[in-house]
């Protein structure tokens, strides 16, 4: 059975093949799969992009989705995640997409006989976000080797930062970090840390992160203005970026904090491209995990 709990569930060739397939979906490949798969999307934490792009990917693949709202379910009566998941398996779901606030929640689900796609676990991993980030970088530079990616902001609380850093280094990119020193991870070496002024001048990819206020015990400790001035991408700092460099952010964006409002849709920004790529990547992941067999019909052939 195939799961996607972390990117460690994929071999490097499988990961490369998913990116190629997602890139085909981004082009003119319209897949026709022959299947009767029904999946359920379980979101125990709020989500706009991940939830909606999984739903869009499922619609485009012809997958039926079972409506499941945590707030109207027996989770509210105390039913465990495992019993909820086993129930959905028992009634015929062929896979589950789950976002949950607990890091490594999927370890509770080892008794399941259907696959789990992790849509984000606490401060752990967010593998489909990483795949869509990789696809966006690949479409831009057609390589990962020797690219300098600087991940900026709330590293310690970010599942995106952890997953991305690990896979980008494996693929040959140089990864550095910038942001408040108290939000850095213990694993970050001194020579990987850059001030924001150094980061903007050195990065090929400037990957900004949202401040995860929901994971801070006593607030972030910075006013929006102070954070933007010291650690954010201001309009003046953007002017010092290399001509070809791009800006990424997993979103939701705190406009005027991680980056200036005017930069969210600037020529360097790939933020909305990342969201579009989320659908393509999630289609490739669903087809892989559910082992869907089918044909790709190309628009120009029809
Ligand atoms: N990037 C991301 O995971 O966004 P959502 O929380 O809206 O799904």
UniProtKB/TrEMBL annotation:
Sequence ranges assigned to domain Aspartate/ornithine carbamoyltransferase Asp/Orn-binding in this UniProt record: 147-288
Protein name: Aspartate carbamoyltransferase
Family note: Belongs to the aspartate/ornithine carbamoyltransferase superfamily. ATCase family.
UniProt catalytic activity: carbamoyl phosphate + L-aspartate = N-carbamoyl-L-aspartate + phosphate + H(+)
Role noted for this protein: Catalyzes the condensation of carbamoyl phosphate and aspartate to form carbamoyl aspartate and inorganic phosphate, the committed step in the de novo pyrimidine nucleotide biosynthesis pathway.
GO terms of molecular function: amino acid binding; aspartate carbamoyltransferase activity
PROSITE patterns: CARBAMOYLTRANSFERASE (PS00097)
A GO biological process held by the record: 'de novo' pyrimidine nucleobase biosynthetic process
UniProt cross-references to SUPFAM superfamilies, sorted A to Z: Aspartate/ornithine carbamoyltransferase
EC numbers: 2.1.3.2
Pathway(s) the chain acts in: Pyrimidine metabolism; UMP biosynthesis via de novo pathway; (S)-dihydroorotate from bicarbonate: step 2/3
GO CC terms: cytosol
